[in-house]
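Subject: for your reference before the review

Hello V.,

The reviewers asked for a structural picture of the protein, and I figured it would be easier to keep everything in one thread rather than splitting it across files. Below is the amino acid sequence we used in the manuscript, unchanged from the supplementary table.
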Amino acid sequence: MPDIPVELRVMSFNIRYRTAPDGAHAWARRKAAVLERIRCFSPDLLGLQECRDDSQAAALRRGLPEYAWLGVRRGAPGSQDIEMAPLLYRRDAFERLDWGVFWLSQSPEVPDSLFPRGSLPRTLTWARLRRLEPPHLELAFLNTHLDHASPLARWRGAGLIRRFMRRELPNLPLILTGDFNAGRASSVHRRLLAGSRTQPGLQDAHLALAASANQPPGSFHDFGRLQPALDIDWILASPHFNVLQAGVDAEAGSASDHYPVWAKLLLIR
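And here is what came back from the structure prediction:
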């Protein structure tokens, strides 16, 4: 147990890919707002989805120089599929111990691979980090974006993530962010939160604070066209953390077609 409490600020944000035919909501009109919402919360850990590894990522790197980036393109080398789901962490808060990316497929080490019936390659980016300040705790941070078209690919992807966490990161304080393309009533949500005889499951930061009769507000609003918004963006954490606060940043407006979701977590063991 750490000698002093450690609070972490975590954000997950699907920023909508740069080349989407969004007219008035094109990336060039939104990028300043995306940066402003990230800076406003100032997360220690940030998971992004739909970030193209071109001028879109370059603009965010320039605007967020205090963060280290980890992530790779989801397509094979030479492919035009240059979207990625990177994770970011504050350089002044953590040192990186290990990291990696694997594909949510039957061939996880093969770039551009996907599960049968999957629509696009999908990845999980993960890192083992250690705090630079006392207590020098270690934790794991993971970020993903599950398939938008295939429930079966989402289910299999969630299972692969769950197995990886249990096999490679056992008993480590762990945070998983992502656009899961499924609601909280889904089998994907249940699968990721489920425990086992040897390891406890994850907790949903927003559900941990929600009144029993209420669901957290949604995050995917399709530039205001979806009312209510869908609750497909989550921050999940191991029982090592207490959830102090969690929310959906509706003030982001049309910075993206998703609102960012955020949580303040306290390490308790």
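For the response letter, the relevant points are probably these. Residues 6-267 form a domain with the Deoxyribonuclease I; Chain A fold (CATH 3.60.10.10). The CA atoms of residues 204 and 236 lie 5 Å apart.

Happy to draft the paragraph if you're swamped.

O.
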